[in-house]
Design a protein that fits this description.
The structure is a single chain. This protein is α/β, with parallel strands linked by helices. The chain folds into three domains: 90 residues, MurE/MurF, N-terminal domain (Udp-n-acetylmuramoylalanyl-d-glutamate--2,6- Diaminopimelate Ligase, Chain: A, domain 1); 226 residues, 3-Layer(aba) Sandwich (UDP-N-acetylmuramoyl-L-alanine:D-glutamate ligase), CATH 3.40.1190; 153 residues, Protein-Tyrosine Phosphatase, Chain A, CATH 3.90.190. Helices cover 33% and strands 22% of the residues. The protein contains 15 helices and 23 strands. The protein has an eleven-stranded mixed beta sheet with strand order 8-7-6-9-5-10-11-12-13-14-15, sandwiched between helices. The protein has a six-stranded mixed beta sheet with strand order 16-17-21-18-19-20, sandwiched between helices. The structure holds ligand UAG, adenosine-5'-triphosphate (ATP), 2,6-diaminopimelic acid and magnesium ion (MG). The site of magnesium ion has 6 residues, from helix 4. InterPro entries: Mur-like_cat_sf (IPR036565), Mur_ligase_C (IPR004101), Mur_ligase_C_dom_sf (IPR036615), Mur_ligase_cen (IPR013221), Mur_ligase_N (IPR000713), MurE/MurF_N (IPR035911), UDP-N-AcMur-Glu-dNH2Pim_ligase (IPR005761). This is UDP-N-acetylmuramoyl-L-alanyl-D-glutamate--2,6-diaminopimelate ligase. It holds the Pfam family Mur_ligase. It is an enzyme of class 6 (ligase).
Length: 491
């Protein structure tokens, strides 16, 4: 496609620009002849320094701030180059699937996009999801490494999915992704907000800044007239009420969901051994639905997913039938093993204080003995959440073992110390395998073991920069190994 034509379609002024555009890149090392290069100031590097190298490699245009120097290629100047780049690229990567929905929130994004994908699939649609678990299509699941891929990968994935015949996509909009304009430029017909609590304060200045990043989804990213699906918990989170305000101010259709929701109202929840029976009011009808998953948090995600599927036009009877057939999401309260003693061992991706509380609350009704929890906190991430995670575990569990979880560039002992500061009485076992085996060996028949923090992850990240290594590590596999070895039973 000619550059001038592309600019015109995107509503940008690019002068003559008769060069042929062959692709887009935000990393000069990925530039080929005909590429449009996005030069962004980042957290680690300044992409503007790579403009000459990008032009040398064949870039025909550079999207960059007005004050940068671009010699030998067209300068598409904008004070917000990431936004303009996304807009331009979105007119190159076409067509995209007809139905696109997004999910944001501190916890529950991956679960909700995955459940939305499942609901669509059960309703007979060709559906995919994009998020922490990678790109999941009707045929396969491919990891992208980040929750929200970079804008080029995101748009290329969407158009690739459309070419494969996928018509419905649910994607996870992380706060990093939203702040960096990594996932936009396409028509988003509905978006969900799950919840908001502490995380990522290494990246965002404070909770307000973090919330503002999330609110870009309703304020700017979704299409005019889109639907906002908002969880409204019984305890009335102020953040969720504020999210609703944002949606209303933008003039979106709103669907409130939950105990305090008006549109999809959860009026009852009875835990059973392997799931829960929900009473849900929607569209003037009251339904009893058996959700084959445990834990209040999975209900929240399932109902938000239902809200998104309904907003995309999936018929209500198919959506609610689907909710009763949802499959577990990998690494989210996944029952990994049974110890010799009979104690079940669960793996969960809880890595925030709120998530630990939610995961423990999910298991508590199923424990007659002790709840034994093993977890740690990631390195090079929000330090302030560590003691709070420790406190959440210590308050609600009977035995807490603090271990390592992706120490990255930090000293693991120091991370554990910060977690332990909030968890009086907790034990410290640095080696994660040893910690998991200790918990499983100690569990008696009436106990439950929770291994939190890594969920679906398959590696332990040690070191950073050039010294970064990923050692194979899978909580589910390790739990099985330890269970096979366990001789069972606390005294
Ligand atoms: C803090 C953060 O979000 N960083 C991401 C972000 O970096 P950045 O824009 O700050 O880029 P940078 O590395 O400073 O470089 C600036 C620019 O120079 C370019 N560059 C750089 C070097 C070079 O040789 N040539 C070149 O052109 C880069 O491509 C970039 O455009 O954009 C990069 C390109 O897409 C990402 O690789 C990088 O993810 C890093 C590795 C990361 O760890 N990100 C995590 C924190 C993250 O994004 N997590 C979220 C949330 C997780 C969740 O809670 O679910 C996620 O969405 O995954
Ligand atoms: N609705 C919810 N409310 C509270 N906690 C939740 C909720 N959903 C999930 N969690 C907790 O958060 C963990 C991560 O869930 P999930 O992967 O769905 O979230 P996420 O938002 O995608 O996380 P990330 O930001 O790492 O991508 C779960 O394992 C669970 O412990
Ligand atoms: N998307 C999250 C995942 C955290 C998972 C946990 N295992 C950790 O490493 O802290 C992040 O990058 O902050
Ligand atoms: Mg996720």
């Amino acid at each position: 496609m000619k550059l001038r034509k592309l600019c015109e379609t995107a509503g940008l002024e690019c002068g003559d620009g008769d060069a042929e555009v062959t692709g887009f890149a935000i990393d000069n090392r990925k530039v080929a002849p005909g590429t449009v290069f996005g030069a962004f100031q980042g957290a680690q590097a300044n992409g503007e320094n790579f403009i000459p190298a990008a032009i040398e490699a064949g870039a025909v245009a550079v999207v960059a701030r007005p004050e940068t120097q671009v010699l030998g290629a067209l300068h598409i100047a904008d004070a917000n180059p990431r936004k303009t780049f996304a807009r331009l690229a979105s007119h190159f990567f076409t067509p995209v699937p007809q139905h696109i929905v997004a999910v944001t929130g501190t916890n529950g994004k991956t679960s909700t996009v995955e459940m939305t994908r499942q609901l669509w699939r059960m309703a007979g649609e060709r559906a995919a999801s994009i998020g922490t678990l990678g790109v999941t299509t009707p045929d396969e699941s491919v990891s992208t490494g980040l929750t929200t891929p970079d804008i080029v990968t995101f748009l290329a994935n969407l158009s690739g999915l459309a070419r494969e015949g996928v018509t419905h996509v649910a994607y996870e909009a992380s706060s990093h992704g939203l702040a960096q304009y990594r996932n936009e430029g396409v028509a988003v017909e509905a978006a969900a907000f799950t919840n908001f609590s502490r995380d990522h304060l290494d990246y965002h200045a404070d909770m307000e800044d973090y919330f503002a990043a999330k609110m870009r989804l309703f304020d700017e990213v979704v299409s005019d007239g889109a639907t906002a699906v908002i969880w409204m918990s019984a305890d009335g989170s102020e953040w969720n009420a504020r999210a609703l305000d944002h949606a209303r101010r933008r003039g979106l259709a709103t669907v409130t969901v939950g105990e305090a929701g008006d549109d999809i109202r959860l009026v009852g929840r009875e835990p059973t051994q392997l799931g829960q029976v929900l009473t849900v009011e929607h569209g003037g009808e009251t339904r009893k639905i058996t959700l084959p998953l445990i834990g209040a948090y999975q209900v929240a995600n399932a109902l938000c997913a239902a809200g998104l599927a309904l907003a995309s036009g999936t018929p209500a009877n198919l959506v609610w039938d689907g909710v009763a057939r949802l499959q577990p999401v990998r690494g989210r309260l996944e029952r990994a093993a049974i110890a010799h003693s009979g104690a079940p061992v669960y793996v969960d991706y809880a890595h925030t204080p709120d998530a630990i509380e939610a995961a423990v609350a999910a298991l508590r009704p199923h424990v007659t003995g002790r709840l034994i929890t093993v977890f740690g906190a990631g390195g090079d991430r929000d330090h302030g959440k560590r003691a709070q995670m420790g406190a959440a575990a210590a308050k609600a569990c009977d035995v807490v073992i603090v271990t390592d979880d992706n120490p990255r560039g930090e000293d693991p002992a120091e991370i554990r110390r910060q977690v332990l500061a909030g968890a009086p009485g907790a034990r410290e076992v640095g080696d994660r395998r040893e910690a998991i085996c200790a918990a499983i060996a100690e569990a008696g028949a009436d106990d439950i073991v929770l291994i939190a923090g890594k969920g679906h992850e398959t590696g332990q990240i040690i070191g950073s920069g050039d010294n970064m290594r990923v050692l194979p590590f899978d909580d589910v596999e390790v739990a099985r190994e330890c269970a096979a070895k366990s001789v069972g039973g606390a005294a």
